[in-house]
């Protein structure tokens, strides 16, 4: 069954599936102004780097629809949307492309709105096509009869297409290559337990959920032939930010000779970022660590270290799979060749 995380209602709003309620409830929200859109992004009702790109651009269309569509108003909307979550590069970079499309459409508010909605629709269509290309390239790396480990959620819920890492997993399953997908629970917000396991069940793919703390012994046991995750931002040298815990998986995979793959569209590469140290990491409230869904298990007001992402050094990554090709080390030259930057 298909998972549809959002619908673009041209001239009206962006409708999103509220991911904070999954898997218990499938409720859709109509985002009709920039404030509602930013709240949905900040609270992870919509999430996943490529999907945030679509949401960011849709936010620009909604701003033009509700506001005055002047240069100043559009630039202010862009700044507000881009600041909502700092790590996933596509939120800001795709919103900026939307802004540029609007400014290039001339001075007429109607023309600017039309250009923005057309940009968002085009971007979603491209995303869907590129996910399929990425999945084809990624599935070709996996051996027959394999089991893989993934982290966080990288499926349709995270991209609007078939997903990045989970798209690879889905295609490998359809090709009869994959026997099982292991998914970490992904504390503290449980994207693996709540979202990936939900998507795997819908796709009919055998899935096994594990506590994040069991991933090292799973890899050491030889039960998985690859670890594959998505990415939120890839620096020019291949250092990659993804959901916190990814670095640990890559380090353990390297220790045991298991390939560690990143699956991400080319838009996740940030040519302005020289290395991982330059990637802004989002820190989230301490309350997220000490409880979930209204249940609290830590004493109130504890201090907590809660980065939403970590950076995996390029040296631990066996390959970066994009829709345009599979990049291998050394990544600085592979990325420069792909993006045309030196
Ligand atoms: O905080 P989230 O749920 O937005 O984090 C998502 C991830 O880390 C994903 O792995 C990443 O965005 C890639 S999504 C295809």
Describe this structure in words.
There is one protein chain. The protein has 342 residues and is of the alpha/beta class. It is 40% helix and 17% strand. It has helices spanning 34-42, 49-66, 71-82, 89-104, 109-139, 156-159, 165-174, 191-203, 215-220, 246-255, 331-339; strands spanning 6-9, 13-17, 28-31, 146-150, 178-184, 207-210, 226-229, 233-234, 240-243, 260-263, 291-292, 295-296, 309-312, 319-322, 325-327. Strand 5 (178-184), helix 8 (191-203) and strand 6 (207-210) form a beta-alpha-beta unit. The radius of gyration is 19 Å and the shape is globular. The chain binds 5-S-methyl-1-O-phosphono-5-thio-D-ribulose.
Oligomer: single chain
Largest sheet: number of strands, sense, barrel closure? 7 strands, mixed
Number of helices: 11
CATH domain class of the largest domain: Alpha Beta
Q: What ligands can be seen in this structure? A: 5-S-methyl-1-O-phosphono-5-thio-D-ribulose
């Amino acid at each position: 069954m298909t998972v549809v995380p959002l619908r673009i209602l041209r001239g009206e709003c962006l409708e999103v599936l509220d991911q904070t309620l999954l898997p218990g409830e499938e409720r859709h929200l109509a985002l009709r102004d920039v404030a509602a859109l930013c709240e949905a992004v900040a609270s992870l009702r919509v999430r996943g780097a490529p999907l945030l790109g679509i949401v960011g651009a849709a936010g620009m269309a909604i701003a033009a629809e509700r506001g005055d569509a002047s240069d100043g108003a559009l630039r202010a909307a862009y700044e507000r949307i881009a600041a909502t979550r700092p790590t996933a590069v596509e939120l800001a970079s795709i919103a900026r492309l939307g802004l540029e499309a609007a400014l290039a459409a001339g001075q007429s508010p109607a023309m600017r709105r039309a250009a923005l909605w057309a940009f968002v629709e085009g971007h979603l269509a491209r995303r869907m096509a590129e996910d399929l290309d990425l999945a084809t390239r990624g599935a070709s790396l996996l051996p027959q009869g394999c089991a893989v480990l993934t982290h966080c959620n990288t499926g349709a819920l995270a991209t609007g297409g078939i997903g990045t890492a989970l798209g690879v997993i889905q295609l490998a399953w359809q090709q009869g290559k994959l026997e099982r997908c292991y998914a970490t629970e992904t504390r503290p917000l449980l994207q693996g337990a709540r979202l990936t396991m939900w998507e795997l069940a819908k796709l009919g793919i055998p899935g096994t959920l594990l506590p994040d703390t069991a991933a090292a012994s799973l890899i050491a046991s030889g039960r998985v032939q690859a670890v594959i995750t998505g990415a939120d931002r890839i620096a020019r040298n291949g250092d990659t930010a993804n959901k916190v815990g990814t670095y640990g998986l890559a380090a353990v995979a390297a220790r045991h000779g298991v390939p560690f793959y990143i699956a991400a569209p080319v838009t996740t590469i940030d040519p302005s970022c020289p290395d991982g140290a330059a990637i802004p990491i989002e820190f989230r409230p301490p309350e997220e660590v000490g409880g979930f869904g209204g249940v609290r298990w830590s004493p109130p007001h504890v201090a907590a270290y809660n980065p939403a992402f970590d950076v995996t050094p390029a040296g631990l990554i066996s390959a970066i799979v994009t829709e345009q090709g599979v990049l291998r080390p050394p990544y600085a030259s592979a990325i420069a060749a792909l993006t045309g930057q030196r």
